[in-house]
Each structure stands twice: as structure tokens, then as C-alpha cells.
Design a protein that fits this description.
By secondary structure, the chain is α/β, with parallel strands linked by helices. It has 5 helices and 8 strands, in the order βαβααββαβαβββ.
Amino acid sequence: MRKIVVSEFVSLDNVIQAPGGAEEDTEGGFTQGGWTHPFWHDDIGAHFFEAMNQSDALLLGRKTWQIHGGAFEPMPDGDPFGDAMNARQKYVVSTTLTTTSAWRNSTLIRENVVEEIRALKAQPGKNIVIDGSSVLVHTLARHDLIDEYSLLVYPIILGGGKKLFPEGLHLPLRLIESKPLPSGVVLMRYTRA
């Protein structure tokens, strides 16, 4: 059975919204976009490529899929980040999309989301990685479908925004790796306890 791995940039106060840029996701009046930039270190890129090497699919909510597709689809061949993202099979969960033509290798999941994702997990293959996609992560966490949380925890408090873990979720976890990075970010990996 494949593992679903949630791979997120997360602030100390559990926020995952708009780590990459000011205009990435302003929903709810969020104005802190791009909060990861001051803490970049090459070890973060190395972690990204390691996660991609251990996976063969991405599972994303509509907004994250559109943001990623808009950034990676137009990248020229030979860009290491673009090549890694564009080559992966992508599954996008959405009730509003009608086509996945905006980003190559994408498949739409419109209904029976939990059952469809259980079926994906049962297929042979490598890990399935989720990033961003707070609504989808909340749904999967509530249905106990997440096998691992691979978190890059940033030394910043944002004071609001979309959270990694939903309110009211009780979830015992077991730490399997902890590694501080030179920029103050800490890689923390957890599995279900």
C-alpha cells in the first residue's frame, strides 16, 4: 500500500497559507504571503528533491493545483523544480474544475473523494505527496488517510491564516526524524502513533 505524505512549510503557529509569495493566496485577507523567503537554505531544496524521488504522484486541492500549475507548467524543460513537478502524476480534488488541461499529467477527482483516495493508496507505487491544500489535508486527517507529516517548521509566527491541522482534531503522532537547518528551519517528520 502506498503512503500519503503531507509535505508542508508551516509556521510555529500552524499556518501553511501562501508560503511562496505575496499574491499566492490572499483569501481571508491574508497579507503575510512569501513568509518562507528569508529562511531559504539549499537543504530545503535538497529535502524537496528527496521527497520527489520517494514519490510518483501529487494529490492537491484545486487552489494549490492551480497555483502550482501556473508556476511549473510554463517552465522550460531542464529546470530541475519544473521537471520534477511536471513529470509527476497529479490528482486534483475539485467540484468546480471541468478540465485538467492547464497542467500536464493531471487527473480530476470530483466525487467520492475519500473512497477515491483510499483506492489510490491501494494501488502499487511510491508515495503520494500533498502540499498546501489545507481543506483536502483536513478531510484526509479526519478520515485517518495520512501516513506521514513531513514538516519544514519555520521560526515565525504569522498570527493567522489557513492552518495545517483543523480545529478539534485529536491526532497522536510519533516523531521519526528531526533535523535543524542552518537558517533556523527545522525538518520534523511524524507518523501516526
